[in-house]
Write a structure and sequence with these properties.
Blueprint lengths: L2 H16 L3 H42 L16 H25 L8 H37 L5 H30 L7
Length: about 190
């Protein structure tokens, strides 16, 4: 041990003897601060991902044929809305993984990047399972709401607003899931 480490240890013991529990509370507060800071960074990364996701989804909703119907066993077929949303989601997951690995959790690199990407992607697959039904089932009611609130909108523009409202809600719900599960599985090596 170095001399400075010895001095810090002695100082910590003196503080602990005069103020029992103080260092434990300070450590807890620092840990809480770190988690809040990480959540804010995670949310910023999520915002970047949302721009990528929404941009990709809206582009695909504009160019994909409306009659796409992908059968899913035991579920309703996925339409162009769900397909465009799924592809936008995958683009955002890749971006979010890179930003989170190198910015939100820079100290998480003791794990293999391939293993982390696989873990991150699998966790986000559960996010897409949450997301697609919200997109499929909430787009039309939100479109109707947009059309009734703003009757000057064209039907196509009201539908676009409805799809984006459903997208926003699905992203918010998936973000909460993704943060907590990724924090304790993908980035479990972070203190």
């Amino acid at each position: 041990m170095s001399e400075s480490t010895d001095v810090m240890t002695v100082e910590s013991e003196v503080i602990q003897s005069k103020y029992p529990g103080l260092l434990g509370r300070a450590h807890t507060r620092i840990s809480e601060y770190r988690e809040v800071k990480r959540f804010v960074k995670f949310a910023i990364v999520g915002g970047i991902g949302f721009v990528i996701d929404a941009g990709t989804s809206n582009l695909l909703w504009s160019i994909l044929p409306r009659d796409i119907s992908i059968p899913v066993p035991f579920l309703e077929p996925i339409s162009y809305i769900g397909l465009g949303g799924a592809i936008g989601f995958v683009a955002a997951v890749i971006s979010n993984f890179l930003w989170n690995r190198y910015w939100t959790y820079p100290d998480s690199r003791s794990k293999s990047p391939v293993l982390q990407l696989i873990t991150f992607f699998v966790i986000n697959l559960f996010g897409i399972i949450i997301r697609i039904p919200i997109l499929e089932f909430a787009s039309i009611p939100f479109s109707a709401l947009a059309a009734s609130a703003l009757p000057i909108l064209s039907a196509e523009f009201a539908l676009r607003i409805g799809k984006n409202m459903a997208l926003l809600i699905s992203v918010g719900i998936a973000m909460i899931w993704n943060f907590f599960v990724n924090r304790y599985l993908t980035y479990s090596d972070v203190k």
